[in-house]
Amino acid sequence: MAVKGSTQIGTSRVASAYVPFLQCNTNMMEAAFRQGVSRYLFVGSIGEYPAIPVRHEDNMWDGPPQANDRFMGIAKRAGETQAEAYAEEHGWDAVRIVRLSNVYGPYDDFDPRTAQVVPALISRMVGGENPITVAGDGSAVRDLIYSEDAAEGMIRAIEDAPPGLPINIGSGNGYAIKEVAEAIASLVPSSPEIQWDPTRPTGDKKRILATERAKEVLGFEARTSLREGIRKTIEWYLDNSDLAQRRGKELHG
After folding, report:
1. Looking at residue 12, what is its pLDDT?
2. Whose CA is closest to 10, among 65, 68, 75?
3. Distance CA 76, CA 60 (A)
4. What stretch of H or E contains 144?
5. Is 72 helix (H, G, I), strand (E, B) or coil?
6. Of the candidates 65, 68, 101, 108, which lies 20 to 30 Å from 239 by C-alpha distance?
7. What's the CATH fold of domain 7-252?
8. Residue 211, class by beta-carbon neighbours within 10 Å (0-12 exposed, 13-18 middle, 19+ buried)?
9. In the chain, what is the straight-line distance between the N-terminal and C-terminal CA atoms, in Å?
10. Which residues pair with residue 144 across a beta bridge?
11. 105-163 confidence digits (pLDDT tens)
């Protein structure tokens, strides 16, 4: 189970994001502990980190999460602390921990009101917005990982990661939002013109996950290029737009 959302949700609908995060963390892990589960994967986020451009696992507690990630970041930190508490008091060492960068791909939330940048732009461009106005000036940098790569990293972690050792799962690359938007525009049928609105919030200027630990401990490295991942996501959306819309209604009513 996971709860995803755009920058706007993280700064406006904070209770709607924070409470499900915290409930998911606490209840799922408590149930697993009570049942004596031998392996449990806790999925954290790049949003747990303080506002540093490149985020190494050992730097998470160097400061509070960035303001726009504060509620969700604290909830995810609470989950990692919960795992540590079980291990310390009860010796339950089942929990493996990963921290994901921004994941995109098929079956994502494509509702522009709530989706993250890649699915939101795909939905809007395929939907015919032309010109399309994008928040910011395009200079913000994000670590983006295609969903199949993220799934591979998580499977490797639950199989091979040591108990309680946080491992970043991301591409390790920084992509400017301008590059992302232009890639999507070049791959959708309408090829829309892009306009920028620097008055709208975009979150951190730069955030990238350091991925050396994933390579060393898990032998994992993301393989899908940004353009290839976007192409696959667009193809899925074009073939499954009805499913994507139904899923959006199920997620958000």
Report:
1. 57
2. 68
3. 11
4. strand 144-146
5. helix
6. 101
7. Rossmann fold (3.40.50)
8. buried
9. 18
10. 102
11. 999 999 988 889 999 999 999 999 999 999 999 999 999 999 999 999 999 999 999 99
